[in-house]
Amino acid sequence: MSTAPLSATPARRRPKGAAAGRLAVVPLLLFVAVSFGVPALAMAYGAFTTYNPGKPSQYTMGNLTASLQGGYLDALIGSVKLSALSALIAVVAGLLLAQAVVTSRFALLRKAVLSASGVLANFGGVPLAFAFIATLGNAGVLTTKLHLDQHGWSLYSFNGLVLVYLYFLIPLMVLSVIPSLDGLRRQWREAAQNNGATAWQYWRHVALPVLAPSLLGGFVLLFGSAFAAYATAAAMVGATVPLVTLQIATALSGNVSADATNVALAMSLDMVVIATLVMVIYIPLQRRSARWLV
Amino acid sequence: MAGVTASALTTEGRPAPSTANGGGSAGPRGVLGALGRIRWGRGTVLLVSALYFMVPIGATLWFTVDNSPQGFSLDAYRQIFTVPGLWPALQLSLLLAAGTIVLVYLLLIPTVVAVRLGSPKLRTVVELTCTLPLVVPTIALTAGISDVLRWCNDNLAPTPFYATFLYAQNANFPVVLLLAYVVMALPLAFRTLDAGMRTLDVRTLLEAAQNNGAGRARAIVTVILPNLRSAMLNTAFITLALVLGEFTVASILGYVPFAVWIVNGNSAGQGPVTVAVSVVSLLLTWLLLFVLSLGGDRRNSAPAQQ
């Protein structure tokens, strides 16, 4: 009924509407160009130049070289290791939890876990750090009650950070994998069982291959989140664990030296390169898993 | 992380395809036997998860009310009302949140309408623009901003722009932070508003309004926006949560909104109060997001039943 006027008008109205449409997008593009483009370009430019007030800046590869050496390199590797390990654990744990929820008979459990995951996936930064300090820090409730410190436990370490990061990574994984688990057809399992497959064989040859793109996509996504995280680590460990975000912050604060600022810009560029790789891997994977599991 | 949760919030509400797993209907005996075995594993997984996710929250609450020698005390929570510096910091955060939400609306609402009506090419451009901030981690954006500020500081002093530059960094309302927060909120806000838009038949609504004599702008304001209300509310909540919790940009650029105050106060020896404040802020944020996720569930499943 409503299609008649629509199909009659586009020839005349489309061009005008399209032009108006493009105009409506202009403020957004301008805003992003100024508020995001300028700092981003300044960062890229600063990474390749020297900075002396009053003098023209000169091109140099020194900042990038420095950002990939010594303590800075350790920090970058530390960040990659931390993100990869916590993402890996979160993928496995998130898959198990999601599967437990999806196959549950209780609709309420599913709803509760989904809502809680939506909330906890947003739970990062300072409050997360504080919650864990109050629980497992030096004076934390569990630490003192269970005398964990006598067993060599320290929250302010690499392993401590992994434990803390899992708190928002696992819910994130649950949220991103549940749609895929829902997409696994019951008939596939039945077909496998009719052909004599064990549960393990079903998972090994049917479910996991179908889930693979979404699991890998999830891993990459979690890696990206953990890699970019700063506030939690800053509030928790200060600078005792070498992480690239912490190094950038220290260098920017100007406590080190004036040159350090440009090295910080170079480290930021390193991060952008890694984050870009993450997105380049993630987007096609997400499309692919969406195609399979509709 | 922010970008992630947009999809999270939207996929979450999607009605589950009926996998019939939940039905518990009797299958062949072998399947039941297998299920019986699996339930053990499921129970363990659920128990461990519940412990992992609940213990830190419980322990934090305990930490704030346990005053070692005397025992239970609500002092930490009472001090929230008297501790110096908290209210100015909270005010700054709320002001920034309000500014961010307004700016996000102004920039994105015309955009999502245009994207819905326009060509696929326009959509690609806008989606790409709104995804870009995800490629630059917050700390890298901060590094870029501080570089721009340093350059301005060194080169703008003799020019008339210097006053504008100083104004943008005014500690009472730092425009720099506002701009950064809008950039950070964009990916999430765009996806939320766009998802809200997808449920509307915009073209028909506009046609109807225009046939009744409304101009395009009026049609958008009086017909489209009311229909977009829940998506707008979602965007506002998520943006509010983002700004209230934001620490990275503010702390490095030297401002003291809410989250930075908490950390500074904690290292200045006001331990229990700051933890109490963070608990309260957390509970409020969670309540907000929880209501949001329940609401989203109801709204999205309604059309599916028709």
Structure characterization notes:
- The model of chain A is unreliable at 1-15 (pLDDT under 50).
- Chain A folds into two domains: 3-47; 63-292, MetI-like (MetI-like fold, Orthogonal Bundle), CATH 1.10.3720.10.
- Chain A has helices at 3-8, 10-47, 62-67, 70-102, 107-120, 125-136, 141-146, 158-183, 186-194, 199-228, 231-237, 244-252, 258-292.
- Chain A starts with a helix and ends with a helix.
- The longest helix of chain A has 38 residues, at 10-47.
- In chain A, helix 10 (199-228) runs antiparallel to helix 13 (258-292).
- Chain A is built from 13 helices and no strands.
- In chain A, 79% of the residues lie in helices and 0% in strands.
- Chain A has 294 residues and is mostly helical.
- Chain B has 306 residues and is an all-alpha fold.
- Chain B has a single domain (85-305), classed as MetI-like fold, CATH 1.10.3720.
- A two-stranded antiparallel sheet of chain B has the order 1-2.
- The longest helix of chain B is centred in the N-terminal third of the chain and has 37 residues, at 29-65.
- Chain B is globular.
- Chain B starts with a helix and ends with a helix.
- At the A-B interface, helix 2, helix 4, helix 5, helix 6 and helix 8 of A face helix 1, helix 2, helix 4, helix 5 and helix 6 of B.
CATH homology-level superfamily of the largest domain in chain A: MetI-like
Reading off the top of the CATH hierarchy, the class of chain B is best stated as Mainly Alpha
The beta-strand count of chain B equals 2
> Main sheet of chain B: which strands, in order across?
1-2
Layout of helices and strands, plus pairs?
The complex is a heterodimer of chains A (294) and B (306).
Chain A: H1 3-8, H2 10-47, H3 62-67, H4 70-102, H5 107-120, H6 125-136, H7 141-146, H8 158-183, H9 186-194, H10 199-228, H11 231-237, H12 244-252, H13 258-292
Helix pairs in contact in A: 2-13, 4-8, 4-10, 4-12, 5-8, 6-11, 8-10, 9-10, 10-13, 12-13
Chain B: H1 2-12, H2 29-65, E1 66-67, E2 71-72, H3 75-79, H4 86-117, H5 120-135, H6 138-155, H7 161-168, H8 175-198, H9 202-211, H10 216-227, H11 229-245, H12 248-253, H13 258-267, H14 271-305
Helix pairs in contact in B: 1-8, 2-14, 4-5, 4-8, 4-11, 4-13, 5-8, 8-11, 9-10, 11-14, 13-14
